[in-house]
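Can you give me the bound-state structure? Components:
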Amino acid sequence: MTTVDRHRLSMHHSEVQVSVELQTPDMTLNLGPQHPSTHGVLRLIARVDGEVIKEVEPVIGYMHRGYEKLAEVRTYAQITTLVNRIDWVSGFANEIPFMVATERLMGLEVPERAQYIRLILTEMARISSHLVFLSSFPLELGASTPLMHALRERERVLDLLEGVTGGRFHPNFNRVGGVKPAAGAGKSEKKVAQDLPKGFLDQTRQAMQHVRDVCDDLKDLVVGNEIFMERTKGIGIIPVDKALAFGVSGPNLRASGVAFDIRKTDDYLPYSNFEFDVATGQNGDCFDRYSVRLEEVYQSSRIIDQAVDSIPSGELQAKVPRIFKVPAGEIYVRAENPKGEMGYYIVSEGGRGPYRLKIRSASFSNLSVLPWLLKGQLIPDIIAILGSLDFVLGDVDR
Amino acid sequence: MTANPSELAERAAGVVGSDRFSSDNGTAKVRVESDRWVEAHRALAVEMPYFSWLSAIDWDTEVVVGDPPQSDDIEPRYEILSCLGNVETGESVILSTDIAKDEPSIASLTGVFGGADWHEREAAEMLGIDFVGHPNLTHLYLPDAFEGHPLRKSFPLLTRDVKPWPGIVDVEPMPDEEGPSTENPEDAG
Amino acid sequence: MSALFDNFWALLGLKAVVAILVILNVALVIIFAELKISAHMQSRVGPYFAGGRYGWAQPLADGLKFIQKEDLVPRDADRPVFKLAPMVVLAGTVATFVIIPFSPTLVVRDLDLGVFYALAAGSVATIGVLMAGWSSANKYSLMGGLRAAAQLIAYELPLVLAVVGVVIHAGTLSMSGIVEAQAEPFFHLGQTAIHLPYIFQGQIIGFAIFFIAMLAELNRTPFDMPIAESELVMGYLTEYSGIRFTMFFLGEYAGMFAMSAIASSLFLGGYYFPGLDSGTFGPIVLMAKVGLLVFVMIWIRWTFPRLREDQLQSFAWRWLVPLSLVNLAVTATFKVVF
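Here's the bound-state model for the whole set.
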């Protein structure tokens, strides 16, 4: 005799029906891989009771392109085209740690101007990536207007990126030893100055002002909105110890109150020359993840303004042949990407390409916390939490 | 870098109880015995609770893809790597251990770091390493029916067999050495 | 001709045809307004080419496109219910138009229980939504349908309670009667008669509650959880295509008009405007008031994110229902005392 049965016997018949909780079978809800809010091809198999999530299992791999294997048969220069497709929303930023790692293995000295150009474009990639998040997250909560306003300003940034690199999403602009000089530059002293398009620095200053303006708008329209606060405050809290154990990095970690920014701790680009603050949150909820990224756009535009004012002139690239061998050795270089820590562990055995390339991508670790995070949440909150983690499936699957 | 890599490696080696450490190219790396793998992580996690990544390398002298290693004194083995960090100081250390090629297996880190779950699943399917004690060691990326372990050096990349890479593949000397085509560095790539 | 008008059934049929034409046209106009207004709020241009100028024919072109689409029914769907659902939604909305007074004479049928009828007919549409969600054999549709049903139960009560305040004021349930009651002078300032609609006669809270509940009833943002395209794909509409989808679409926009017209009649004085002859200008006055309300609805939709289902429920039960009860008590007290 079960407990419930015994319980029943001790009661009057009419009491039985109200006291025994209604047992309903759980429903399995399949979100994705084709679902409007899964940012591409993420699939979530959720066991739900009504609208409450009992358990969720993310299924990834729909975007797996095997970059780690492909890198083993390519030369270092050819891998550049691969790595900027990992997180396509900020393609330029992906190239940096790979280039820095290769250059350190070869012992190359990168000209300062090239480093500044890399830094400016990396921060532009960060702004463009964050603006996508800042605009698409309200869309997932049902507000579509911020999207249009933020993407309009992002277009200015992308135009600048395109003007320098020739590509909006996949710049493929870095070369081992520096950045790609403009066509014909380097043959004579005069043409060295043609590396950046005419008027680039002024247009950058203007664009940064526009970006800050639209962020002010977003502050009013989104962050100050009562319904937005209701939907995001206290939702999807990642405590610091969980965040660290799952390798959550970038703005997601900083929203939990950890001021960990690789731009401050490592020296892969000359960030120590500039003043900027590390934005942190307190609660680690969706609201903090949104406001941290909003603040980071201000800080990035601040860095760009300083860099544009102080950019030195000079060479763009150290002298490197087209196909070269890299001395044997191992190195790990990480960088603060818009999504978090992006790192490359390169094992060189003296060949034209790496013997083994491990790609540490931010979204992979940020997403791995999902099964833990979604337990017990409501279906509408899945969307809020998923959106607030700001992942890109290419960055998850590689 | 906040800390000197060699000092950092030495300190971390002291914490995990190992005397093999290196800091080449500014990367602090500590080698531990495979039977002390979990123990070493537990010890270092006190100071470095940030679990960055875990992966593995297939060391072999005979490779089907890519350039073979130049040195031929490589002992065939799998090397497991993991990267831990301290978010306050910004230090990060790589722990590594070797396991034998026949029946490669190692204890799972999922009990120490929740994030090791997906990383170990990836390493398991890509290199065929058995993580003992992992709760759900199924394919992460590949289809369930996929056979083989793609990141092993013995696993061929068929597209490259069918069609060789077009364009220049021959190595050119560094510009400060004697050799052709040094005056066009901008064409690189 | 006059013999035709004297025949009750002929007249009723004629009125019905006119009403349906009006509904269709009004729905198209509101759809176009939404396209254009949302575009300008988002610094876009919006429809531009269809029809030659300003893209005025865009809703028509959309409608024609939908009609050409294949009428798909999922294999596991409950076919009769699935096919009937859009008709129920549209029929419920169309039925509401019967009692909307456009002028003292221009009304399909001025029922004595007009307000009661309007609220009852308006909630029939939700039955259609529930039917659509249930019959689609799709989990997202089902959840959308259930959300719509839960929403109906939560918001029907404040909606009715808000109306009761007006009914107590007017002392009648007839829509025309309520509008006429607002046309009576509220008080005299010297020789000048001051006319005030009910919203300024102390029913402003009632109006606010009615408007919020109306948004929920129409499934408009911030209460569009039954559709919630980022969560439930398209909610109860997921499996619908072609002409059936168009019927839902038309139903939504005709519903916007119908509810706005009811709100205008109850709270804003309907076809009456001081100094204008209701017989001649009545329809224009009503349309202007409806236009204002519809604009506010569109404005809200393109500004706010959506609430969560449980937040909506607690908002309805913990705020709107008690507030409307207080409103009702205060109104009744004043009616008795003065």
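A couple of observations. Residues 5-16 of chain B form the longest helix (12 residues). Chain B touches chain A through 66 residues (CB under 8 Å).
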